[in-house]
Design brief:
Elements (H helix, E strand, L loop, with lengths): L7 E5 L5 E5 L2 H5 L6 E5 H15 L1
Antiparallel strand pairs: 1-2, 1-3
C-alpha cells in the first residue's frame, strides 16, 4: 500500500464482495490477506463503475 488513500474497501478475495470501508491505514494493513484484500477507494470505485458500464 504505497499510494496514500483517504480510505480502503475491504473485499473478500473469493467473491470480490465489499465488506466494509475503513479510513484507518493500520486497519487496512492488518486484514487477513489469505481471505481479504484492502483496495484503495479510488481503485475500488473505478472498478465498480467499469462493471456497471459493461453491464449496461
Amino acid at each position: 500500500m504505497s499510494n496514500p488513500s483517504p480510505s480502503w474497501v475491504i473485499t473478500e478475495k473469493a467473491t470480490g464482495k465489499a465488506l466494509a470501508e475503513t479510513f484507518l491505514r493500520h486497519v487496512a494493513e492488518a486484514v487477513n490477506t489469505e481471505k481479504y484484500q484492502a483496495v484503495p477507494i479510488t481503485e475500488y470505485l473505478q472498478g465498480l463503475n467499469r462493471k456497471i458500464k459493461e453491464a449496461a
